[in-house]
Write a structure and sequence with these properties.
Length: 411
């Protein structure tokens, strides 16, 4: 199990039903950034970051763990890219197990399940009743310690205890920065033409061991986990490049067993690239191991002509990633590096959570001595423009053309 399965179970039980009525209705209507910004200003503290010309804008919410809630490439009249759970945000309520506010770059800590989980207390069953998201990454605010027109630095001091009763004292430092268009093009390795509109931002997330004892594999390690929730469309396809090679050496190409095997009309592997539907119509999830994952993934929304790309730092020598399965684990450090989730009804006729789809990345497991830290960078690009102008970016960064993405499930 994982956090998405739990949200669905909560919904089925009716615990969260009142929080999701508005967002559960599937719609392809365009949401403007200005509309979302005004809504957020009415309900919480808002920090708006922007690039020099003001077209690329990002909303950061310090009281909601410093998450990037949404962004735009065309100012207040542009599309709003992040999924927002308006019902829950506006309610002001605190839900017992988890608070699903939304946001396209939010900070979490793994692992979620197993003997080193920070979501379960020692000795309890790995079930819904005993699963709780730690308050420091769910409901408690982060401290805003510095800001400029295009950046924000947030901090949080916290203590966590895992299932094995190991106590972690740590400090989280989170820096969010909006990139200028020339910087974004440099990171992508391609020149964006005049017809391209783009917003790019990155979060650099660091955890530091502030305790007196080293964090060791035998008693449990932590990881940085960044999750992005985006608005789906009927023609959104997630694109995940992977390292080709025999399973005997690299293991399975993809883990698609989170909610039962993903049907072939929703997950396709072709020439070193996975295509996965992000339409918000069918509940499913995939993950890639460090042997298979590359430091990039993305999606394309053919309805709104939006190419989304996520880059992250993946250390070449890192092999230990925390395992979040809800069970006592034989291999607690054989977890995923990248994940993508597509929301949908948990059963025929039921309401989805959002709907939304997710792009997620994780750091390696952090074996830290006192005073040591580990960082994880997660960078998001939203690129809009004519399809022919997006081809160069998609082909250079993801290894496929826009045409290949659109036709991934047609043959």
């Amino acid at each position: 199990m994982n956090h998405v399965r739990i949200l669905i179970m909560l919904l089925c039980l009716g615990i969260l039903a009142g929080c999701f009525e508005e967002e559960a209705r599937m719609t392809t209507a365009k949401k403007t950034f200005g509309d979302d910004l005004e809504f957020l200003k009415k309900n919480t503290e808002v920090l708006v970051l922007s690039d020099a010309d003001g077209n690329g804008q990002v909303v950061v919410l310090p009281k909601l763990q410093g998450r990037v809630m949404t962004s735009t490439a065309e100012g207040t009249e542009g599309l709003s890219f992040g999924w927002i759970n308006r019902e829950l945000v506006a309610s002001g309520k605190i839900v017992e197990h988890i608070n699903v506010y939304g946001g396209e770059d939010r900070f979490w800590i793994g692992p979620e399940g197993g003997q080193f989980s920070v979501f379960f207390k020692q000795g309890v069953p790995f079930d819904l009743e005993h699963w709780f998201t730690p308050a420091p990454i769910d409901t408690e605010p982060f401290d805003l310690v510095g800001q400029s027109a295009n950046s924000a630095h947030l901090k949080k001091v916290m203590q966590l205890e895992n299932y094995s009763r190991t106590v972690f004292d740590l400090r989280v430092d989170r820096e969010i920065r909006v990139l200028e268009p020339y910087e974004a093009g440099d990171r992508l390795g391609v020149f964006a033409g005049e017809k391209i509109k783009m917003v790019a931002f990155e979060s650099v997330n660091k955890i530091t061991n502030t305790g007196t004892k080293a964090w060791e594999k035998e008693t449990g390690l932590l990881s940085i986990w960044i999750l992005g929730m985006f608005n789906p469309s009927p023609a959104t396809t997630v694109v995940v490049p992977f390292s080709s090679g025999p399973e005997s050496q690299l293991g399975p190409v993809v883990n698609d067993a989170y909610f039962g095997k993903v049907p072939p009309d929703r997950l396709v592997a072709r020439d070193g690239v996975l295509f996965f539907r992000g339409d918000g119509l069918y509940r499913s999830k995939i993950g890639l191991s460090p042997q298979r994952a590359k430091p990039v993934l993305g999606s394309y929304d053919a309805v709104n002509n939006v190419l989304t790309i996520v880059q992250y730092n993946k250390p070449a020598d890192a092999v230990d990633y925390v395992n979040s399965m809800w069970e006592m684990q034989d291999e607690p450090y054989k977890g995923d590096v990248v994940n993508s989730y597509n929301d949908g009804p948990p059963e025929p006729g039921a309401k989805p959570l959002g709907p939304f789809y997710e792009l997620e990345t994780s750091s390696a497991a952090a074996a830290l001595k006192p005073g040591e830290g580990i960082s994880h960078m997660h960078r998001t690009f939203h690129v809009q423009g004519p399809e022919k102008d997006l081809n160069a970016i998609a082909e250079t960064v993801l290894g496929v053309t826009i045409g290949q993405i659109k036709s991934a499930f047609s043959g």
